[in-house]
Specification:
It is a single chain. The protein is an all-beta fold and about 500 residues long. It has strands at about 30-45, 50-70, 75-85, 90-95, 100-110, 115-120, 130-135, 140-145, 150-155, 160-165, 170-190, 195-215, 245, 250-255, 265, 275-280, 290-300, 305-310, 320, 325-330, 340-345, 350-355, 365-370, 380-385, 395-400, 405-410, 420, 425, 430-435, 470, 495. The protein has an eight-stranded antiparallel beta barrel with strand order 1-2-3-6-7-10-11-12. The protein has a four-stranded mixed beta sheet with strand order 14-18-17-16, with no helix packed on it. The protein has a four-stranded mixed beta sheet with strand order 20-24-23-22, with no helix packed on it. A hairpin with a 2-residue loop joins strand 8 and strand 9 (about 150-155). The radius of gyration is 59 Å and the shape is rod-shaped. The structure holds calcium ion (CA) (3 copies). One calcium ion binds near residues 220, 227 and 233.
């Protein structure tokens, strides 16, 4: 014969997945203890011997997670994570058609078949009170008992939605669960024929009330839901600073750009929530002492700060950001070098100078650029200036006394001092010469038709202090006439710089 009594558990399958993820500390369950209530057993039996007994709860514990539920659309989400209820046992004896039977049930226990989540909706009974409905097909119960000394166990589902209430305001939980039973009675059988052979319906109704013991993580007597700091024992609710922060120690760096300043540690004290740590260190520190403020912030907007001092002693040299390319010039003199630029790790633009001379001579000159920061740290870079003298000397033959055929010869060259020679004569720069014009010199090749030779030799006293250049001694020396000033032409045959191979200036005419 099947057991007469199957007990009820409070279980619901499935859950409301919309519940927001909670912090681990929020998942502490509310423990429901001090259970009272009863199990009402109504079971039909042959010969009208129906059973109708009510047995009280003798022990029990429920757990609802989280303690206060999670706020979701329409109410609060809870998960029933534990059910352990024991009912007082009983014994019944029935006689039917000459057959008597006694059944004694002990250790009547109900547990959860699996965890069950549900959404409790606000009740009209008052604030912080929620009505509970758990759909019957979501419930699973697991019942055990000993009947006449033999263990019985079964999974069952209720026959109607479980109902109840969660009263957070008063710390109470109520549950009402009904399970329909169908028991087949069979006895007095001979072969396939039995004196008793019939099935009877029944109902088991459980009504349970328990007191919520809200979690008290710090055991200070103030439940977490009311504790202003649930992880620090403060029964008088003295304010506890949270979060806290510990800044790294003071540091000294050699560069304003150094940011290896460590990390502060922010710690939540009261809520077990995440703490965000930030600091206000600038991208570039200033030389000297820099206070850095570290801030720890929790999810409630509470903050704590701590200061770290970063001291910069700038011993880092500037860095050149641009150095002009090497320069080549075809003549001596001033050269356009361009401008070097530099940057420093610390504030301010480094001073950039160079050691270039005002003018450059032939050859390679190394120009050294120097960048100096505000702390006196200097870096150098070099630029080469290569001068190749490709420009001939300039020569002049200035008539100072055209009538007397006197001239002042001169020369100039950017790369050095030129010497002047006229034929076999070596002349000093600025030296005066007088051309002997007693003869008609030949016209220079290519002379125009407007010029013509003087018709007669010119007799003139020669200033013996001056070199006398005879026609036969000078290549390229000539006189002509026909200009307004009777200016003669003085052809400087060659000008030679001391430092360079001879260069010839052909027919420089004045
Ligand atoms: Ca507490
Ligand atoms: Ca506390
Ligand atoms: Ca520097």
């Amino acid at each position: 014969m099947k057991p007469w009594i199957l007990f009820i558990t409070f279980a619901a399958a499935g859950s409301t997945a919309s519940a927001a993820a909670a912090r681990a500390s929020d998942l502490t369950p509310a423990v429901v203890t001090n259970l009272t209530g009863s199990l009402h057993i109504q079971q039909g039996a042959p010969c009208g011997n129906d059973v109708d007994v009510v047995r009280p709860v003798v022990r029990g514990r429920l757990e609802l997670t989280p303690a206060d539920g999670l706020a979701v659309t329409g109410g609060r989400s809870f998960t029933l994570t534990r059910v352990e209820i024991g009912f007082e046992g009983f014994s019944v004896h029935r006689d039917c058609l000459g057959i008597g039977q006694t059944r004694t049930y002990n250790e009547l226990d109900v547990q959860l078949g699996r965890t069950a989540s549900f959404v409790a909706v606000p009740s009209s009974a008052g604030p912080d009170i929620f009505d509970v409905t758990i759909a019957k097909d979501k419930l699973l119960l697991y019942q055990t008992d000993t009947m006449n000394g033999a263990l019985e166990a079964a999974y069952l589902n209720p026959s109607a939605d479980a109902t109840g209430a969660i009263d957070l305001a008063h710390g109470l939980v109520e549950l009402h669960v009904v399970v329909a039973t169908s028991v087949h009675f069979q006895a007095g059988c001979v072969g396939s024929r039995c004196v008793i052979d019939e099935t009877k319906p029944g109902l088991m109704t459980a009504d349970v009330v328990g007191t919520i013991a809200f979690p008290d993580a710090d055991h200070d007597g103030v439940a977490d839901r009311a504790d202003n700091c649930r992880f620090v024992a403060n029964p008088d609710q003295t304010a506890v600073p949270t979060p806290t922060i510990a800044a790294p120690g003071a540091l000294t760096f050699a560069s304003c750009a150094d940011h290896d300043i460590g990390a502060a540690t922010g710690t939540d004290v009261c809520d077990g929530g995440p703490v965000t740590v930030t600091n206000d260190a600038p991208a570039t520190f200033n030389t000297g002492a820099n206070p850095v403020t570290w801030t720890a912030a929790d999810t409630h907007g509470r903050t704590a700060t701590a200061t770290q001092t970063i001291t910069i002693v700038d011993t880092t040299t500037p860095t050149f950001t641009f150095v002009p390319l090497d320069v080549s010039a075809g003549d001596c003199g001033a050269v356009s070098l361009g401008a070097a630029t530099a940057a420093d790790d610390c504030a301010g633009t480094p001073a950039v100078t160079n050691d270039a001379p005002a003018t450059f001579g032939v050859g390679t000159t190394v120009v050294t650029w120097t960048a100096t920061d505000a702390s006196g740290n200097a870096a150098t870079a070099t630029q080469r200036v290569v001068v190749t003298d490709a420009v001939p000397p300039a020569a002049a033959c200035e008539p100072v006394n055209p009538i007397g055929h006197e001239f002042r010869v001169s020369s100039g060259d950017a790369c050095g001092t030129a010497t002047i020679s006229l034929g076999s004569y070596g002349l000093a720069n600025g030296e005066r010469i007088k051309v002997q014009t007693g003869f008609h010199p030949p016209l220079p090749r290519g002379a125009g038709t407007s010029g013509h030779h003087r018709g007669r030799p010119e007799r003139q006293r020669h200033d013996r202090r001056l070199p006398l250049i005879a026609r036969s001694q000078r290549p390229g020396l000539s006189t002509t006439e026909g200009t307004e000033k009777r200016a003669s032409v003085c052809s400087v045959a060659s000008v030679v710089r001391n430092s360079l191979p001879r260069k010839t200036v052909t027919r420089s005419q004045f």
